[in-house]
Every structure is written in C-alpha cells, then in structure tokens.
Amino acid sequence: MRRVAVFVSGGGSNMVALLDDMAVPGHAAMPCVVLANRADAGGLARATERGVPTVVVDHRPHGPDRAAFEAAISEALTPFAPDLICLAGFMRKLTAGFTDQWAGRMINIHPSLLPKYKGLNTHARALEAGDAVHGCTVHEVTAALDDGPILGQARIPVLAGDTPQTLAARVLEQEHLLYPAVLRRFAAGDRTPLFLDNTKT
Ligand code: GAR
Q: Which CATH number fits domain 1-102: 3.30.1180.10, 3.40.190.10, 3.40.50.450, 3.40.50.170?
C-alpha cells in the first residue's frame, strides 16, 4: 500500500476527490496525512471528517526562507512516512531542495493544458487568448513551476459566453475526475499519460 501525503492551501476539493477515491476498497494507495500551509485551509476539516490526520506548516514565520519552510514540512511529514505527495491546490512554490528529494514521487494538478498558462489566472488567460479548448493537467513536480512530465490531461470546450468563473467551474469538475484516475495509475507504477477528451459531445 502506497502512503500518500496530500498538500492543500484552500478548500481542498481535489483533496476530497483523492481521499474519497482512495477509500474505495482495492485502491493501491491510502492517505496518511493532509498538510496545509494555512491553518484556515478548508481542506483540513474535510480531511478530519474523513479520518485522515492533518498538520499545518505555516510558511509565514519563515519569511523568504523557503529552505527553512521546506525543512519544517519534511520534519512534519516524517512521522507519517509518506511514499508519495499529491499537491492539490498547494499555492507555495517548492525549491529544488525539496522537489529533488521527491523526484518521481510528487505530483500536482494545474488548471490549464500545460505547457500553456503556467502560474496564476489560467482561465482568464485562456479566454483572452481566444482558445477553443481548455482543461487541466496532472504532472510530476520538478523545481520549475508547473513543469515536469505530464501524467494526464482533460480537455473541455470553451463555450460562447464563458467567463473565468464558469470556465473554472467546468475545469474543476474535470480535475475531480482526472486527478484520482491519474493517482490510481501512478500509485501502481504506471506513468503512461491519461488523456480525457470532452471536446466532442
Ligand atoms: C484547483 O483548480 C487547482 O488546479 C489549482 O487550485 C485549485 C484548488 O482547488 N491549483 C493551482 O493553480 C496550482 N498551480 P481545490 O482546493 O478546491 O482543490
């Protein structure tokens, strides 16, 4: 059984999708801890409701010292002995000091079809560019932001009248399908990318 640490900063809807899928009997992975960098992250209560231990490692006391923040994360993780890390709306950049330790064992979900639109405001940027297709990506985490080998993508059409909010909501629905499906494969050692195409209805 692979032990998974899930990192969140916010509401944790992707975390819930991962936890609920790992609760299905026969899954090759189990959640061992949910870690948040903010004590007010909504995902913490949702993890507790599901019987998963939580820890908070606040980045703020470390100021600009990312190495110290990452050392505190590593220390907090040790008792839970994770094999894998899933970033699920974890909004802190991680440096090579941390990503190298977890190379090939840490994955992230990002709300765009990478390599397009790394960083923030992905939905507004897709609309401004006039894209007909948008979506989300699960990828292995490297020191470069929103980079690393692609493990899966889900594509949806951009509709006439879409706003960043309507597009975000439809992409989020796809995130909740894609991330658990990719984690299942990844936990079983399968890194073949998974492509979900919802552009043809
Ligand atoms: C999700 O849309 C996720 O893809 C995005 O934050 C949201 C978190 O929502 N992540 C990033 O932008 C990371 N670069 P959630 O807390 O409800 O899962």
A: 3.40.50.170
